[in-house]
Specification:
Blueprint: H1 2-6, E1 9-13, H2 17-27, E2 32-36, H3 39-49, E3 53-57, H4 65-74, E4 83-87, H5 92-101, E5 105-108, H6 113-158, E6 170-171, E7 177-178, H7 180-187, H8 198-208, H9 211-217
Parallel strand pairs: 1-2, 1-3, 3-4, 4-5
Antiparallel strand pairs: 6-7
Helix pairs in contact: 3-4
Amino acid sequence: MLEDIQRQVILIIDDAIADIKILGSTLQSDYKILFALSGQEGITSAIANQPDLILLDIIMPGMDGYEACRQLQADERTRHIPIIFITAKTAEEDEIKGFALGALDYITKPVNPVIVKARVRTHISLRLATLDLASKNIMLAARVEELEKARKEIKDIESIIPICSYCKKIRDDKNYWDQLESYLRRNTELKFSHSVCPSCYEKHVIPQFSPDRNKEKK
């Protein structure tokens, strides 16, 4: 039982039981095999079991393989599952139609066990590599988000400047207290243009030119 859980799952959708038996016996030693006898049954099974690969017959009564493929590709729950068509049709236009619907490969009937194994092995390997890459991308995205959060936290910490409530001097990273202008000159690329605010103009500049002050100078 544990071995079946660990093996990749292949869903065979075919109305011909004889063909299912041939494909099943070819692949069952390496994969867990599920089967469905109609297109609709196959879609239901694919949604419920999430196989790693679907082998889909084209010629079936009711819903044919093309329509089943179209519905599987249109459903977000199953569009990621690779599909290989199993068919007796060999015309180029049939292959083009299948690829346009989203199938990845074709295997012609009567099936050759060696070819079936090789094609299935290739697409299972691609499927596993895709899943592994997706998992790594999720982990990478989470790591990038974590680093970005840490960077913002560091930036917030660095943006907090300790300033004296009384003299307004600033403490630098060496624990020295300095005037605001000197601190900004050393730690930023700011350039200063000196001027006088209205309050300081009233307090410091006007008194220098008052008559009383001129008398004191004499």
